[in-house]
Structure prediction request, 399 residues.
Amino acid sequence: MLTYIIILITLFAAIVLLSLLKRYEIMAPWAITPIVWGVILFIYIFARKELYAMVPDFLNGLLLWVTGLCAASFITFKITPAYKHSQWQACEKNIDILTGLAIILVPLAVYKAIQHAMMMASPEELMMSLREQAIDPEENQLGVVKYFVYIINVLLILELDRLKIRKWRLSMIIMLCFLFFVATMSKTTLLTYIFSGLYILYSNKKISLKPIFFFALFLIAMVPIMYVMRSSGDGPETDSDTITSLLIIYIVSSVIAFGYLTPCSTAQWGEITLRPFYNILHGLGFDVNVVTTIQDFVYVPLPTNVYTCMAPFYQDFGLPGIFVFAVIEGAIIGVIYKYAKTGFNIMKYLYAFIFTMLITQFFDENFFQAISAIIQTLLMLIICHTKFIINKKTDTCTL
Prediction:
C-alpha cells in the first residue's frame, strides 16, 4: 500500500511539473488537483500510524479521478477557441443597488440569527446553534438573505478586480463577508471568500503565490478551530482534544472514511450525485427520494463526516462513476478556465468561485452538489454587467 501511495505522489508531481514546464499554469485545474492530492497523500504517510488503514479502492479511485479530471480539463482547454470579444463592462448602478441591499439586510438577518441562537442555546452551544440554523430549513432565520452569500462574494470579486481598489468599499464588503460567516459558521463560506479573492488578485498580478500558500496554512489551522467552536456535549467525542488530532481529522481522515462507503449502494439512480436535480423534481411534485446533505460520522479512529469529492460518484456508480464524472467535471472547468485566461472577465470571476472547490476537493464534492450555487453566482455576475434600460413610452425593460 505504501508503495502504491508513493507511486501516486510521484505521478501527481510529474503532472504538475509537466504543466509548469509547458506553461506556467499553476492555477489551472490540471495543476491544482494533483497538488492537492499529492499533499494529502504525503501527510497521510506520516500520520497513517494514528489512523485506520486506507482501502485499495480509494487509491484506485483517486488515480481515476486525478487522471480523468486533469486530462479532460487540459484537452478542453486546448480545443476550446479563445475568447475574442471585448470584456463585459460592469454596470455600477446595479452593483451599488446590490451593495445597498446587502448593507441593510445582512446585518439585520445576522442579528436575528444570533438573537435566536442565544434564546435557543447556552453560551457554550451558541456556535453550534448558528450552524444548525444555516443547514436546517426549519431553524433558518436568514430567510431570503441566505442567498446574499453569493451576492457578497460577487461584490468582493468585482471590487478586487478593479484597477484601483477602493479601500473603503473593500473594507465594507469584507465586513459583510465576516458577518455572513458568523451567521452561518460555515468554513466553506469563509474559504470561498478568501480563495476567490486571492485568485483574482493573483490573476491580476497584484500578489504572488506566497499569500495563497499562507492562507492554505490558515485553512489547515482554521478548520479544527471551528470544529472546537461548533462542538457540543451531545456530539461525537474525539479520542484526543489536541489541535494535532483535529488537524488529522480534517486533513487526512476523509481518505480513511472513504473506506466505509459501499459502491453502487444507493437505492435511486444517481441519488447522491444528482441530488440538486432530484430536489427540483421533488419540488415539482414528483415521487423521488431526496437525500440529506448531512453525512453520518464514522471513526477513523477519530470521528469525521467528510468522505472526499469522490464519495457520491462511488456510492452511486462505483469506480467507473468516479472516472466518468471526473471527465465531465474536468471538461466543464477546462472550458471555463480557457475563457477566463483569454479575456472573458465573467468566466474569470466564475473560475475564482470554482477555485475554492478545487482547493477543498479532499473534503467533499462541491461541484455537482453546488451546481445551484454556481448558477446563482453566474446569474449575479451577469446582472452586475447588464444595463437595464426602461422605455417610458412602452413601459418595457430592455438590455
Q: What stands out?
A: The mean pLDDT is 83. The first strand starts at residue 298 and ends at 299.
